[in-house]
Design brief:
By secondary structure, the protein is mainly α. The protein contains 7 helices and no strands. The protein has helices at residues 14-25, 35-52, 63-76, 92-103, 113-121, 124-131, 142-153.
C-alpha cells in the first residue's frame, strides 16, 4: 500500500470522502482499502443506479464522482490507501471551540479531542455563547459532535487537525 505524505483529503469533495469512508468502514478488519477498491465499489453502485434507473441520494452518486476518483488514481496511483482521502473536519461552530481551546493553551501540549470535550463540559461553550462567538442554537449539538469525533478518531487525536476553515 502506498501512503501519502501530504494531506490528500483536502483534495477530495465531501461526497467522495463520504463514499470512501463508507467503503473503508465496510472492509474486513485489517484490510487496507485502496483507491482501486473504491473505484470497483463506485462502479458497482453506478451500474446498480443505471439499471434501477433511480438516483441514489445517500451518496449523491454520479459520473462526476467517478471522474474525480479517476483523477485521484491518476495522480496518486490505484494502490494509494483510501483512508488517506477521507476528510476529517469539525463543523464551523466546533472549529471555533477548538480554536478557543488552542488559543488558551500551552502549545507544548497541543489539545486533543478529549481536551476540547473537557473544556466544553467545564463551561467553554457557554462562555463562547456569552461572548457572542457562538449562537445559542449552535452549542446544542456540539457535545454530540465532539463525542462522535472521539468515537471515530479517539480522544488522543489532535484537535487542530479537525478545524475547518471556510
Amino acid at each position: 500500500m502506498i501512503r501519502n505524505p501530504i494531506d490528500v483529503a483536502t483534495r477530495v469533495s465531501p461526497n467522495l470522502s463520504t463514499l470512501i469512508e463508507n467503503r473503508v468502514n465496510r472492509s474486513e478488519p485489517g484490510q487496507e482499502v485502496t483507491l482501486a477498491t473504491v473505484r470497483e465499489f463506485l462502479t458497482g453502485l453506478l451500474n446498480e443506479a443505471f439499471t434501477e434507473t433511480e438516483h441514489l441520494h445517500h451518496f449523491d452518486i454520479n459520473d462526476s464522482l467517478l471522474d474525480e476518483l479517476d483523477a485521484l488514481i491518476e495522480e496518486f496511483g490505484d494502490e494509494a490507501v483510501a483512508a488517506d482521502f477521507i476528510q476529517k473536519a469539525a463543523s464551523e461552530a466546533l472549529s471555533r471551540v477548538i480554536e478557543a481551546v488552542i488559543s488558551g493553551r500551552d502549545m507544548d501540549h497541543p489539545p486533543t479531542l478529549e481536551t476540547v470535550r473537557e473544556a466544553m463540559t467545564a463551561g467553554l461553550t457557554a462562555a463562547l455563547v456569552g461572548e457572542g462567538a457562538l449562537e445559542e442554537d449552535e452549542d446544542d449539538n456540539l457535545l454530540a459532535e465532539i463525542d462522535a469525533l472521539i468515537n471515530r478518531y479517539g480522544g488522543d487525536a489532535l484537535a487542530e487537525e479537525f478545524i475547518r476553515y471556510e
